[in-house]
From TrEMBL:
Signal peptide: none annotated. It comes from Stylosanthes scabra. PROSITE patterns: EF_HAND_1 (PS00018), EF_HAND_2 (PS50222). Pfam families: EF-hand_7. Residues 20-55, 69-104 form the EF-hand domain. This is EF-hand domain-containing protein. It comes from the Eukaryota. The keyword ATP-binding does not apply.
Amino acid sequence: MGVVVIDGTTVRDFVNDEAHFTKSVDDQFTALDTNNDGVLSRAELRTAFESMRLIESHFGIDVATSPEELKKLYDSIFEKFDCDGSGAVDKNEFRSEMKKIMLAIADGLGSFPIQMILEDDDNSLLQKAADLEASKSAAA
Ligand SMILES: [Ca+2]
């Protein structure tokens, strides 16, 4: 686990750095596609959101959610990602939804930096956003 300080601008800069963002999302997609068939199944996508902990914990605060409610939530997320209703999420669908999610997080964060505790996960997009910000500060 690591603690990063992050605000909306950090996340937005990361998303707007298209080459960097696309590569990060693609890396995450590849890591999630555990059976290597080039698309994310319902279970594979669920793993993504479990690791991001966006649902079970609201920015670090654990909230109790019943397994039935969680299943409904994950199903609705899957259907959102699976734009063409093919039953699997391809790379383009994943990219465009992740972009929307990250921008929604940026809006939610606003301009007030908050501390976030992230699991150790090399593919965490928020971690990468923080890393990008840190590398800019170091270069400045
Ligand atoms: Ca797959």
